[in-house]
Amino acid sequence: ERDAILRRQSARESTARTYARSLPIVPVRARGLTIEGADGRRYLDCLSGAGSLALGHNHPVVLEAIRSVLDSGAPLHVLDLATPVKDAFTTELFRSLPAGFADRARVQFCGPAGTDAVEAALKLTRAATGRRGLLAFTGAYHGMTAGALDASGARGAAVPAAGAGVTRLPYPYDYRCPYGVGGDRGAQLAARWTESLLDDPRGGVEPPAAMIVEPVQGEGGVLPAPDAWLRRMRELTAARGIPLIADEVQTGVGRTGAFWGVQHSGVIPDVMVLSKAVGGSLPLAVVVYDQDLDVWPRGAHAGTFRGNQLAMAAGAATLKFVREEDLARHAADLGARMLTQLRGLAERHACVGDVRGRGLMIGVELVDPASGGDGKAPYPADPELAAAVQAECLARGLIVELGGRDGGVLRLLPPLTLTDEQASAVLSRLADAIEAAER
Ligand code: PMP
After folding, report:
1. pLDDT value at position 370?
2. What confidence score (pLDDT) does residue 377 get?
3. Cβ-proximal residues to 347 (8 Å cutoff; 6+ apart), any chain
4. Which pLDDT score is estimated for 155?
5. pLDDT digits over 389-401, tens only?
6. From ligand 1's centre to the CA of 273, what distance in Å?
7. pLDDT tens digits, residue range 273-318?
8. Do residues 216 and 409 make contact, with C-beta atoms less than 8 angstroms apart?
9. Coil, strand, or helix at residue 160?
10. Dist. CA 219 → ligand 1 center (Å)
């Protein structure tokens, strides 16, 4: 059955399909960290719906929330009308927002995916400022629709973006700092470059409607923004009247060890873009923003599917569970222990160039020491090795994702409910896979 399904799908589906290429499994059941395939094999899922399953697959509180809507006879499709379900979601969302933001916040429900909320944020800030330009970062990923693609600097390159009005600024990448110095100094230089560009009248920067930033770049290779650098971006934008958009699609809801990724630095953005875990594993996306920006005309942002009642119920249950169980703290603690163990792995294997992350958003950058590079570390990224490790992981019942500017970074996005024993199982399978794939 498994092979027949895979054969039919690959004959009929677009060549642009992605996960289905590197993960040839046919999931039929799932619970928590575990997916069971049609062939009866079980997998530890550290992809978690691209980071959207904060509580893992089919968590009881999520299932119960969905069931209670289904059993209540409430309408499933209500456009964007007010309902008790929406009220409960909005209340829980506002309760979780950073202090200093929540009391001034407005929410706009968007189309179902993260990329839709990015579009809404870009549109909102253009409407509010009357400007068009956008400040975005190297290696960024914001989605696959036109505006989000323009803002992206990573995988978006697969199809050329229009790139209209986008100024690309350097995002700190400690391990591969283009200035040749890592740590605070590299981030300071990146910030200074940004500042000089913004203030250079001949710099070619179109007057910006916004700056958009990920508190931790995910698809770009799991790069946490240094706190001081992010605070500097906040200062630079605030001083120039440029709204700051935090794309928390992947970093939100406890993932990085704080409820929101911006909270590590204490930065209060003007706009937060939320999706993935906010819908508790079902499609939901919102922008939350300062009320002063709420000047776009009535009907300026519409769409048929902005009222998914099941997603709102699942999302409210997820937000509540993460808050009440303090899963952000759990993610911070367990993530730190996993990073320590992974650093041990890096000491034993020359091909593990860098290990980094925040909370349960973890990246392992694989490199090719044999290539020699330019004779000094870091060695070039090794996307072939990363793909081989991913395949060896799958053979051992572990699902990991790849990312990074060259595709050389293994990414782990396990559920926030991950236990110590599960983490050990994940790390030991990963270590075996690296051992097997290393040339
Ligand atoms: N922004 C970020 C930071 C993301 O990680 C993603 C998805 N990986 C998106 C936006 C786009 O979300 P979606 O795939 O739901 O459109």
Report:
1. 87
2. 66
3. none
4. 54
5. 999 999 999 999 9
6. 10
7. 999 999 999 999 999 999 999 999 888 999 999 999 999 999 999 9
8. no
9. coil
10. 9
pTM: 0.97
- Return the C-alpha torsion angle 297, 303, 309, 313, nearest 10: -60
Q: Find out whether the beta carbon of 50 lies less than 6 Å from any atom of ligand 1.
A: yes
CATH class, 74-324 region: alpha beta
The token pair at 100 is 């200093």
Alpha-carbon dihedral angle through residues 79, 83, 87, 88, given to the nearest 10 degrees:
-110
Q: Whose CA is nearest to atom 10 of ligand 1?
A: 142
Where do the domains of the chain lie?
2-58+326-437, 74-324
Ligand 1 midpoint to CA 250 (Å): 7
Q: Judge whether 2-58+326-437 and 74-324 match in fold.
A: no
Q: Is the minimum distance from the CB of 143 to ligand 1 under 6 angstroms?
A: yes
The predicted structure's pLDDT at residue 166: 93
Per-residue confidence (pLDDT) for residue 372, from 0 to 100: 74
Cβ burial of 438 (10 Å; 0-12, 13-18, 19+) is middle
* Host H or E run for residue 29: strand 27-31
Residue 350 Cα to ligand 1 midpoint, Å, equals 32
- Rounded Cα distance, 396 and 279, in Å: 30
| Ligand 1 atom index nearest CA of 248 | 3
Closest Cα partner for 319 from 292, 281, 272? Answer: 281
Which CATH number fits the domain 2-58+326-437, given the four candidates 1.10.3720.10, 3.40.50.150, 3.30.70.20, 3.90.1150.10?
A: 3.90.1150.10
47 lines ligand 1 (CB under 6 A): no
ipTM over 0.95: yes
Sequence-distant contacts of 342-346: CB under 8 A, at least 24 apart:
342/427, 345/427, 345/430, 345/431, 345/434
Residues of the chain with pLDDT under 50: 156
What amino acid occupies position 117? A
- Across 266-389, the runs of DSSP E, i.e. the strands, are 271-274, 286-290, 352-358, 361-366
Q: CB 103: neighbour CB atoms within 10 A?
A: 9
For residue 113, the ligand 1 atom closest to its alpha carbon is 15
Rounded to 5°, angle at Cα 301 from 297 and 306:
140
- Nearby residues of 53 by Cβ (< 8 Å), 6 or more positions away: 45, 277, 281, 415
Pairing state between β 208-213 and 244-247: parallel
Q: Does the beta carbon of 217 lie inside 6 Å of ligand 1?
A: no
